Amino acid sequence: MQAWFLYLLALGAGVSVSVQQVLNGNLRSALNSPAWAGLVSYIGGLLTMAVVLVALREPFPSWKLVSATPWWAWSGGILGGVFILLMILLLPSLGAETLLALVVAGQMLAGVAMDHFGLFGLAPHHVSVSRLLGVALVIGGVLLIKE
Q: What is the mean pLDDT of residues 132-140?
């Protein structure tokens, strides 16, 4: 696939995260519960992935593949749940723009560290001045838009 198409898809993913957080915030207000709003969000995600699995006719993974998977690879859903809950809890206080800017800054810091040290099976991409400058610019952007 061409790089520009992949970049557009990544931008679309970013837009979907932003919209998701606002919708989850609305659901929190309507249900008067961040936990119920998070659960509803995850049920929607579960149903979406079930449809994708059926549409793609994905077979169940073999027990050999499941048992060979590192323990930490199974924790993504837990971290996703923590992320959704924190987003729902923090959105009213911080606002969408500040919250999402802080999330992006956190993602950049984590991404640089994971790339540099080759964590979780990633191929190492060592820290460079330009990468650190990029992270600094994102953090600077957070400071500029913070209310």
A: 89
pLDDT at residue number 116: 95
Which pair of structure tokens corresponds to residue 44?
């929607």
Token code pair at residue 33? 């519960």
- Pick the closest to residue 48 from 20, 75, 85 (CA basis): 20
Rounded CA-CA distance 118/102 in Å is 24
Q: How far is CA 56 from CA 1, 29, 52, in A?
A: 19, 36, 6
Tell me which DSSP letter residue 124 carries: P
Cα(133)–Cα(131) distance, integer angstroms: 5
Contact residues for 111 (Cβ-Cβ < 8 A; gap 6+): none
